[in-house]
Hints:
By secondary structure, the chain is α+β, with helices and mostly antiparallel strands. It has one helix at about 105-124, and strands spanning about 15-25, 30, 35-40, 45-50, 60, 70, 80-85. It has a domain at about 15-85: Immunoglobulin-like (Sandwich), CATH 2.60.40.10.
Amino acid sequence: MNPIQPTQEPLIGGDIGWYTVHSNVDGATVQFDNDVKGTISQGILTVQVYTTGTPYRTYTLTKDGYTTYTGSIDRYPGKGETVDLYATMNPAPTPAPKSPLSPALAGSALLIAGLLLIAGRKNN
């Protein structure tokens, strides 16, 4: 009788490379193709990737108070290699304060005041 040899499970993954994301905003959340990878700390985040995996296409950085940054990934690390990605984030524009009176209401008030002034002069 011949014993059956156990089959070895296929290895998942493969060779490893890295992306290093550089940003001017600590605490920004980094996503590759909408998959959260971590947050920027001391200006960088290093992300490990399998070189045999499906390549990422975009990277996005978000943080409250800043405009979202999205960039294209057009370089892919080989075995043991690191590819640098850069993102400069800008503060989000602050909304202009709203006037307590709408323009139409302010215009109507001026019209009424003008009419009252004219009517008052006619009576004198």
